[in-house]
TrEMBL record:
Alphabetically ordered keywords of this record: Glycoprotein, Hydrolase, Signal
BP GO terms, sorted: L-arabinose metabolic process
UniProt source species: Chryseobacterium hagamense
Name recorded for this polypeptide: non-reducing end alpha-L-arabinofuranosidase
MF term (GO), any: alpha-L-arabinofuranosidase activity
Catalysed transformations (reactions): Hydrolysis of terminal non-reducing alpha-L-arabinofuranoside residues in alpha-L-arabinosides
Length: 653
């Protein structure tokens, strides 16, 4: 028995699989329910979430900062900033101008020198991330680092303005200190605006040094200053995820090794975190976004805190010394791999180390979290394949388990669900007795229906599976976007019954990607869509939610019906999931293997009238509906609409 199998005995939940079997009778479809559990239990980590900074998911998304390029560090330092009244415009020749200065000895290299030529005319305007969303009656915290230069600039007025430059909120900062100092002020909005701007106006004449210009809503998740966007985290919380996989995805690898994700650069003071170009900025020519950077305001400390808030296990993924093989495929030489391995060891110490006895445990405590994060999983590489990956994985595995034998390592089978790379990865990894092998599949809906039994044939004594990235891709719209329609979500539900049925093989799974901004997305479909003011959940989101909060285990498909059943010993409840992918309504009689007294029966239905139906802003109509079901003549009969997911909950004696 390997380390992983020993450990996960402690992680089993109270959900036990119950066998189900469809049959036909004169009255219709019968679901025969074996009330004796199979002994297979569902992992608490069965359904989780996968976060990657793609589709503006972090800056301009989950991370609630509203100012783009707040510290002037982008390749073009004034990206996102405009000077509407500059000395170069004839109507205001002496207004002022901004000059970028660089300090190569700092991680935050650049700062701005503002030169003002005439009083109250020079302005700097920030466009935000495809605009700044402003909510009526909401309060916003404006802050910046300032230092007086020559002569005297007395105040900086911060204003939120709408698309027509009409003021929505304003506040003024009085400059009191000649040296660098952080200034903060709050302002309250009078109107709602989707694509506003931040406008700075200067009083006085002379020069002023400026850095870290920031604007945050006060209404962040848990009210944390400089925190995460409330509505987006709430949607994650409502999923009740078992784990959070972060920070990617291909973000981990980078197009080159220099552009890879390095966790140590993402912790500590946000003003000292060194930004990099987001590897998705120009990856897709039809969705190019050259102004897409990573400031790492959402860094590893924030990821761990988010997982803790959600009650989920953290699952960080680290570079294995290989850049993305779809790009450069750049490799670290084996003799130069030690720093990458040390990063993994140090991360485990950062998450779990004793503050009094370890360097990185002490640093975690200094950041405000003396208690360990109870890290149990770590991933080595993302979608790597081939002998180079296996050679590096062996080094990581030996080093990690030599020092931390209790840690469960996620290895990878490459970017595909089958084929040469996939077969080679599984064959070679099995020789190493791995704990979890990550599989990814982005396929048409029909593939998910045809592969609901995919894991029936897997070796029950072999490595466990992490279905780390999957989504059904259903056609394309006028904008080239593959749709989050009901057809895709329903096929995912059918497939997920197969994950549950094989819960002795599949220990973890997550839909991908998680977030997408409607005005700056690179990849679709996605689980949650948002704009500057709000967000909506897709049909796939509600499928994930219903499975996550009703963990179970399906067994059989017949006549385009898929089903699962589980017994919750603590709640004295049997949960049955039925997925009908047919275009015909069904009545299914549930027949227990031996008599039971059903105290109460509730039914939750998720369905849509057409396969290509979708949710959108203001019309989130594909949502679960719950009702109580009457039991007549001691018969349990469920109405299963065409193309629907139905959850039956039976309180039993």
């Amino acid at each position: 028995m390997n380390l992983f199998k020993r450990k996960l005995i402690l992680l089993f939940s109270c959900f036990c699989i119950v066998s189900v079997l469809f049959s036909q009778s004169a009255s219709g479809t019968v679901l025969q329910l074996d009330m004796n559990t199979t002994g297979i239990k569902i992992q608490p980590t069965m359904y989780g979430i996968f976060f990657e900074d793609i589709n503006q998911a972090a800056d301009g998304g989950l991370y609630a900062e509203l100012v783009k390029n707040r510290s002037f560090e982008f390749t073009e330092p004034l990206t996102g900033w405009k000077q509407p009244n500059t000395r170069y415009q004839s109507e205001n020749p002496d207004s002022g101008y901004a000059t970028v200065f660089n300090n190569p000895n700092k991680t935050n290299h650049n700062y701005l020198r503002v030169t003002v030529g005439n009083d109250k005319n020079y302005q700097l305007v920030n466009e935000g991330f495809r605009g700044i969303g402003i909510q009526k009656e909401a309060s916003y915290d404006f802050s910046c680092l300032l230092a007086k230069g020559e002569v005297n600039i007395r105040t900086v007025k911060a204003e939120l303005v709408d698309e027509n430059n009409k003021v929505v909120a304003s506040a003024e900062v009085k400059i009191t200190n000649p040296g660098w100092q952080k200034y903060s002020v709050a302002m309250k909005a009078s109107r709602t605006v989707e694509k506003g701007k931040l406008r700075l106006t200067f009083t006085g004449k002379g020069t002023l040094l400026m850095d870290m210009v920031s604007l945050f809503p006060q209404d962040t998740w848990k009210g944390r200053k400089g925190g995460l966007r409330q509505d987006l985290v709430q949607k994650l919380y409502d999923l009740k995820p078992g784990f959070v996989r972060f920070p990617g995805g291909c973000i981990v690898e980078g197009r080159t090794l220099a552009n890879r994700y390095q966790w140590k650069k993402t912790i500590g003071d946000v003003a000292d975190r060194e930004l990099i170009i987001n590897r998705w900025n120009t990856e897709f020519s039809h969705r190019s976004s050259p102004d897409y950077f990573q400031t790492f305001g959402l860094g590893f400390m924030e990821y761990f805190q988010l997982a803790e808030d959600l009650g989920a296990a953290p699952l960080p993924i680290l570079s294995c010394g290989m850049a993305c093989q779809f790009n450069t495929g750049e490799l670290v030489r084996m003799e130069d791999l030690d720093p990458y391995v040390q990063d993994a060891l140090d991360l485990i110490e950062f998450a779990n180390g004793d503050p009094a006895k370890t360097k990185w445990g002490k640093f975690r405590a200094e950041l405000g979290h003396p208690q360990p994060f109870n890290l149990k999983f770590i991933g080595v590489g993302n979608e790597q394949w081939g002998p180079d990956y296996l050679e590096r994985y062996r080094i990581f595995e030996h080093a990690i388990h030599s020092r931390y034998p209790e840690i469960n390592i996620v290895s990878g089978s490459g970017p595909y669900s089958d084929g040469e790379y996939f077969d080679y990865g599984w064959k070679e990894l099995k020789k190493l007795d791995p704990q979890l092998i990550d599989e990814h599949y982005y396929k048409p809906p029909q593939w998910f229906l045809e592969n609901a039994a995919r894991y029936d044939r897997y070796d029950r004594s072999g490595p466990k599976v992490f279905a780390g990235e999957y989504a059904a891709h259903s056609g394309s719209g006028d904008d080239g976007r593959k749709r989050n329609n009901w057809e895709a979500a329903l096929s995912e539900a059918a497939f997920m019954t197969g994950l549950e049925r094989n819960a002795d093989v599949v220990y973890m799974s997550s839909y991908a990607p998680l977030f997408a901004h409607t005005d700056n997305w690179q990849w679709a479909p996605d689980l949650i869509w948002f704009n500057n003011l709000g967000s909506y959940a897709t049909p796939s989101y509600y499928v994930q939610q219903l499975f996550s909060v009703n963990k179970g285990s399906p067994l059989t498909e017949k006549q385009r019906l898929y089903a699962s059943a589980v017994k919750d010993a603590l709640k004295k409840e049997v949960i049955v999931k039925i997925v009908n992918v047919d275009g015909t309504d069904r009545e299914v009689e549930v027949v227990p293997s031996h008599p039971v007294a059903v105290k109460k029966l509730s039914e939750t239905v998720l369905t849509a009238s057409k396969p290509d139906d979708t949710n959108t802003f203001g019309r989130e109509h594909i949502i679960p509906a719950e009702k109580e079901v009457l039991i007549k003549n001691r018969k349990i009969v469920a109405s299963v609409p065409a193309r629907s997911l139905v959850i039956l909950k039976m309180k039993i004696r």
